[in-house]
Write a structure and sequence with these properties.
7-stranded mixed β-sheet; 12 strands; about 300 residues; alpha+beta; 5-stranded mixed β-sheet
Length: about 300
């Protein structure tokens, strides 16, 4: 699909308190405007004097309020099919382009049909959820009118096109470089320090250690409990491991009914180990472990330990 290149961008609130959202987005594929008045044909013809007079009278000669009303109505009637319309529904950003023809409905409201309907995905198929959108854009949901321009228009276009924001791309590149460095540092740890690192990762993730690290139990490296899920986990930590080593550890886990799940943590292993799947067993290899070290804020600890 070609990239979008809108000549204008507007947020539209689909009815008071969103009462038209479901019908417009899920059923009709339309954008819809209230502001009912007897001047639909004048609006279509671009004859705005009687429309302006109507809303000035409606607003009791409040010119500022009447001008806001008129500007929103004119946007609905005059913006071309190259204008991008957005709204928010069920915590997702929806967008569309709309046909130029404005149709008056039986209840006096007006509508334009969305070309190819509404979409809540970017052009690469990713869902546009509000938690992954800049708050300077999502704050437009608090707009008290019906139609308005949006801040961060270039950001929005890149977001819909599925193009990474320049600053985000730079940060991701830096994070990828950091992760490679962390992987190298992990692989150079002494085995006891590696066990300690794993212990710290789980502790920072909310797990509570039951057994003493480095105790007398040779079958279990870490015995941890999650107060959130009320589950107990068996953790086996290996600097190096083969598939046979992994299967032996799983067999030990199966014999101990007090554990609900198992984590097999290793930084150097046979490539085939990545394809091993066992119910209730999670394999944390070097890549995943490095991600957890970074998210747990243990990079400085790791650097100090290797210094």
């Amino acid at each position: 699909m070609p990239l979008i290149k809108p000549n204008a961008i507007r947020f539209i609130k689909l009815g008071e308190k969103g009462r038209w959202e479901k019908s417009c987005i899920e059923e009709d594929g339309t954008i819809r405007l209230g502001y009912n008045s007897p001047y639909h044909e004048d609006s279509r013809a671009g004859n705005w004097e009687p429309v302006s007079a109507f809303w000035l009278k409606y607003r009791k000669t409040n010119e500022r309020a009447a001008t806001r009303d008129l500007n929103q109505i004119r946007d609905f009637y005059e913006l071309s099919e190259q204008a991008l319309w957005i709204t928010f529904y069920k915590r997702k950003l929806y967008w569309c382009f709309a046909e130029r023809l404005v149709i008056q409905l039986d209840d006096g409201s007006r509508m334009r049909r969305a070309i190819d309907g509404w979409s809540c995905n970017d052009l690469k198929g990713n869902v546009l959820t509000v938690e992954n959108i800049d708050g300077r854009l999502t704050k437009v949901q608090g707009f008290r009118g019906t139609i308005c321009a949006v801040e961060r228009s270039e950001y929005l276009v890149r977001k819909i096109n599925g193009i990474a924001q320049p600053d985000v791309k730079a940060a991701r590149d830096s994070l990828a470089s950091l992760q490679c460095s962390v992987e190298t540092l992990i692989q150079g740890l002494w085995w006891k320090d590696f066990e300690l690192l794993v212990d710290l990762v789980f502790a920072n993730s909310g797990w509570q250690r039951i057994s003493v690290l480095g105790g007398t139990d040779k079958d279990v490296d870490l015995d941890v409990f999650s107060p959130v899920t009320n589950r107990r986990a068996f953790i086996q930590v290996k600097s190096q491991a083969t598939t046979a080593t992994f299967k032996n550890s799983v067999a030990q886990f199966r014999r101990m009914e007090q554990f609900q799940e198992m984590y097999f943590v290793v930084h150097t292993s046979d490539p085939s180990l990545a394809d091993c799947t066992e119910e209730g067993v999670h394999v944390l290899g070097l890549k995943r472990l490095s991600e957890l070290v970074i998210s747990a804020g243990l990079v400085n600890w790791l650097i100090t330990k290797r210094s």
